[in-house]
Amino acid sequence: MVKKYYDKDCDFSLLDDKAISIIGYGSQGHAHALNLKESGANVTVGLRRGSDNWPRAESSGIRVMEVEDAAEAGDIVMMLVPDEHAAAVYNAQVAKHMKKGNVLMFAHGFNIHYNQILPADYLDVAMVAPKGPGHTVRSQYLEGKGVPSLLAVFQDNSGKAREYGLAYAAGIGAGRAGILETTFKEETETDLFGEQAVLCGGVTELMKAGFETLVEAGYEPEMAYFECVHEMKLIIDLINSGGFEMMRHSVSNTAEYGDYVSGRKVVGKDTREAMKQILADIQDGTFATAFIQEFSAGGQARFLASRRKEAGHQLAKVGCELRKMMSWLK
Ligand code: NAD
Ligand code: MG
After folding, report:
1. Structure pTM?
2. Over the chain, what is the mean pLDDT?
């Protein structure tokens, strides 16, 4: 079982004489900056001059500097720019301002694990990764609660990297919910696997296959959309709050019986083999190399073509029309 830490295990006073610089003020950045500041930490946000987030952060009472100045000012520097830009930002604007004893932090392990950022050996390198979107990290904090978060140490020069990570995690409210210890490798590989095989890739292809099966058999696309796409949320909400047990308790016996006899026909041997291959491609860097190439200068041809193609699918069009009938959706 993973090791868990709570507020009582975190020494927030370690941050008393530390300047924390957070690079980026998006989903995670705004939540980390505001929560840490309200916890009593000395926080600066680093942004590009002209960024829309600059006035937004300042109007919330956060000190803002250009990325290089913030990196220079920070004893602890948390990188919260999009993962595909982090290496360029770090290498050009942050690295040269990182001094011995400084702590470099991330909320996702990709750039460290796949060697896109090679931090100097005199730095501590740690991860604090909330398992929820930034707006939840913020709203839970305001309610006196927190979002469970992952902690990992990649490099421990000071001998205190874990303690700094715990103190930072406590400052964003994570110690109220629980901090789970992992590694950069485990966080990165499981995160990529989950989003590809199950959450994003797996779920959309499953929905599409169900939709296409019904439509090809002559059923109305609207019916197919309701049954194979729209109702997923009802099921997932039940699983999310009470596990498979609560979902199976809530649906009809017909649905529960069908679940047992048919589910494993859909996700059978082929799918499990495909999942193993997806995991192997993540572990040996094949996926990371393809992703990095796709997003390097002038790229994204495949990414944007896929986005266009998916948007043109019948499922997308039918869904757009049906959602207009649902007044509770914005
Ligand atoms: P985001 O896209 O919401 O915000 C990125 C921020 O970086 C913005 O303020 C943007 O203006 C700024 N930015 C972009 N390019 C920049 C540049 N070149 N120089 C300076 N600033 C720049 O990103 P996010 O979702 O908050 O993700 C940040 C990190 O948190 C990532 O490592 C991500 O994997 C991780 N994470 C995100 C979530 C989530 O739910 N969003 C959850 C856990 C971890
Ligand atoms: Mg994730």
Report:
1. 0.93
2. 97
